[in-house]
Specification:
By secondary structure, the chain is mainly β. The chain contains 2 helices and 16 strands.
Length: 342
């Protein structure tokens, strides 16, 4: 029991030393030193010192990647003694990504083993993203990984108007000055001066009006086959988004809501009246200034019109399309032949 407690304490001390070395105002300048310390303390390892036997690769959150999304790679390395090591980051292991090289097709990969797939599905449609991980210190070791593209995802396209600007707060009024001091000498009395009035606070500024959403046109075609997919083209003035959606698990939400109005500014506080001066009699206290009025919240913008034109073969899948255009007219659905969009 005591040994277990000492081991836990040792690990905590190691983590504390690493944090102290890696954090602070000069962290960027000390990264290389931080890595050396991590290797020295055993929390990281350089592969050049490991007799590597094999390497495999996987995605941290299961196979497949969605257009527009990112996913972390995990490299699993087995040494000559059968010991298994994993990469840092999503693999929560000791192997540094700087000791590996990742090349990719269709997807892109950064230096931390994170792969990204472009949002436009036309870039990857019909292709199989692939990554190759090599080990410069062991040129004969490599791992290959195909990454299927998934379309069973809840996609969104937001064309809503911008929020209105918030109103400025009013300025506080100035406090009044205290009255002058008189005399309370019974043989030579004099009255105290009156305090001056506080000034009024100014009104808060009204919030700005929310922006109007643009009109949105949606076209939907069916990619038939053993596993049908929906091709969707969502267009507004100056902007277009394209989606490929699995109707069995995926969906598309299109928002063209009016922007919310900006909040009104708070009214300024009225200044306090100055106190009356001491005397015979005492001076009277000045009047408090009035508080400024709070600004009114801005009105919401208008929602944009939404028109959905869909091929007759898509009718059974319309439930995967979700629309929102608060403050606008009811969406319109038109059924007519729609040719493949690409």
């Amino acid at each position: 029991m005591a040994d277990s407690s000492l081991l836990s304490t040792s690990r905590q001390a190691t983590r504390f030393l690493i944090r102290r070395a890696c954090l602070g105002p000069i962290a960027l300048l000390a990264l290389s030193g931080c890595t050396r310390l991590q290797v020295r303390l055993g929390s990281k390892v350089h592969l050049e010192a490991v007799p590597v036997k094999s390497m495999k690769a996987r995605l941290a959150k299961g196979p497949g990647i969605v257009p527009g999304q990112k996913s972390s790679l995990v490299a699993v390395i087995t040494d000559a003694d059968g010991k298994v090591l994993q990469t840092e980051g999503a693999g929560q292991g000791k192997v540094l990504w700087s000791d590996l090289k990742v090349t990719a097709s269709v997807v892109t990969a950064n230096k931390k083993g994170v792969v990204s797939l472009p949002r436009d599905p036309r870039v990857s449609d019909g292709k199989m993203p692939h990554v190759t991980i090599t080990m410069p210190s062991h040129p004969d070791i490599r791992a290959e990984l195909d990454i299927p593209v998934r379309y069973d995802y809840n996609f969104t396209a937001n064309f809503s108007g911008s929020s209105g600007t918030s109103g400025f707060n009013g300025t506080d009024g100035l406090d009044g000055t205290s009255g002058s001091i008189g005399s309370i000498d019974p043989n030579n009395p004099s009255p105290g001066g009156n305090g001056s009035d506080g000034t009024n606070g100014s009104n808060g500024q009204d919030g700005g009006r929310g922006g109007d959403a643009p009109p949105v046109q949606i076209r939907v075609a069916l990619r038939s086959g053993s596993h049908p997919l929906l091709q969707m083209d969502v267009v507004a003035p100056g902007r277009e988004e394209v989606f490929l959606i699995d109707p069995y698990g995926g969906s598309l939400t299109v928002a063209a809501d009016g922007g919310s109005g900006g909040s009104g500014g708070k009214g300024g506080r009225g200044g306090r009246g100055g106190s009356g001066g001491t005397g015979t009699p005492n001076g009277s206290r000045g009047r408090d200034g009035t508080d400024g009025r709070n600004g009114w919240d801005g009105s919401s913008g208008r929602g944009g019109s939404i028109t959905v034109t869909y091929d007759p073969a898509v009718a059974r899948y319309l439930g995967v399309i979700h629309l929102s255009n608060r403050g606008g007219p009811a969406p319109v659905f038109n059924e007519e032949p729609v040719a493949p969009l690409w």
